[in-house]
Amino acid sequence: MGVKWNLPERMRSGAQMLMPPIPSESDSDIYTSVPESVESFNKVESLDYDPIENYPYRAFRQQVSRKPVEGIVIELRKWCVTLIAGLITGAFAYSLSRAANKLAQVKFDIVSDWVLEGRTWVSYVTFTAFCVGLVTISSILVAYVEPVAAGSGITETKAFLNGANVAHTIRIRTFVITTISTILSNAAGLFLGKEEPIVRLSSIIASGMSQGGSRTLRFGLKSFATLRNDHEKRDFFAIGAAAGVSAAFGAPIGGVLFSLEESSSFWNNDLTWRMFFCSVV
Questions:
Q1: Interacting residues of 131 by C-beta distance below 8 A, sequence separation 6+
Q2: Pairing relation of β-strands 44-46 and 213-214?
Q3: The model's pTM
Q4: CA atoms within 13 A on the CB side of 153
Q5: What confidence tens digit (pLDDT) does each residue in 157-187 have?
Q6: Which contacts of 102-105 are long-range, i.e. CB under 8 A and separated by 24 or more positions?
Q7: Distance (Å, rounded) from C-alpha 130 to C-alpha 105?
Q8: Please, are residues 201 and 84 in contact by the beta-carbon 8 Å criterion?
Q9: Whether 250 contacts 258, CB under 8 Å
Q10: For residues 225 and 151, what is the distance between their CA atoms, to the nearest angstrom?
């Protein structure tokens, strides 16, 4: 048996204004489309940045603490990976810029002789076709091979450093497609810079090296087992971002500040020194 409320007219009209509207049959498409939009978030997972408190891990840490030599080896391994990541990042940034400039120079060399000979239309059509071809190849690679490689990658970098594990962010295929599309797009003359993709690619290099293996290539080094966790991967990802800014702009302190102020939400003193060391290298 229902309860009938005897409310005044003023209170009854106010209550009706606060009540949500009852969906009608015409609104059925809106409510049925909600699960489909939610499915797009299934590819995004959270990274495990919380401290591990289970008993096996506590026993492992106690065992390491009883063996000071093993703890020193782990720290030395981190610093060695940081050094190698800095060297590879600098060499890679230089190679990427060099390749883009060289390909652009080839484009100009092809049409320069025709321009001097007065064959303006031939040079114009060839120049345009060359640029359109490079952009088409770059677009096809990003759209059909690895869509995650679209954009500068700064958004994915910030998301990863704040705990969102977007699928295929640090995969080898993403690294390769981003590298190729960056070179082709810059050589084609688009209004794109190499700096932001270099930051993303440097993060992939550092985080991938810290894991000592690859799921795509199906190999892994047992000596890097202590570094295969989300915490270490996040730290080296931040180190790679700082090294990328340093390699792109020649500003190691700026790279550390970028990773500290703009990207990372987790920080410690040891990470600061390793990040600065990698950026200087």
A1: 107, 188, 189
A2: unpaired
A3: 0.75
A4: 34
A5: 888 888 777 778 888 889 999 999 999 999 9
A6: 103/134, 103/183, 103/184, 103/187, 104/186, 104/187, 104/189
A7: 12
A8: no
A9: no
A10: 33
